[in-house]
Amino acid sequence: MTYGIREIFGFHSKLAMSFASLVFAGLVASCADAEDNAQEKDVKQNPTTTEKSVPADESSSASHKPVSADVLEPADYRLNDYRSPVPATLKGARVIDGEEARVLHKDNAVVFIDVYPRAPKPPNLPKNTVWRDPPHMSIKGAHWLPNVGYGVLAPHVETYFKKHLERLTGGDKAKPIAFFCLKDCWMSWNAGKRAVEWGYTSVIWFADGTDGWQEAGASLTPIKVVKD
Questions:
Q1: Which pLDDT score is estimated for 4?
Q2: Are 111 and 92 in contact (CB under 8 A)?
């Protein structure tokens, strides 16, 4: 028997193929729960890792409040409630909106990095189950580095992130790189902050992500995850 994420989580196929806000929220929550468990295991196996991430907020994007100037930029990474209002700034980075993102994309001047979390393969699937990754819609030409936006990264995820940042920038830490996810998503903020702390000097945060991209009149296209 063949199962996909739509069957496992009970989504209607049309909803799974669209990126409606309710599906986004449910998928982010499911990914966060699974990644949290994986990172908890890494914490136990790697004594140098002293924290673990907290699952994302399960509320839908439709219920999110608008970005508020009252949301202050924290000194450290966001560890929970990843789908909630974000600050207007990211220290050491430039913040852009959908229109600016379109201009940069058209000029091919920036490396766009999508940090939307990947749905993990559920454990204990029936024997001979064929697992299919759900489709992921994003900005054309973007590089999907999933799960690198959690507040605490498991060692293998941090290594994956560092390796591909170096590859995508050609080792040039001054090369512009833009991080995005969804609107009101702390994962892109965390990823951008991490890149700044690793010495990248032209970090861009596209805070509204794929939502802002569509609101600016641009379309999304299916992209594949960047593998190890």
A1: 45
A2: no
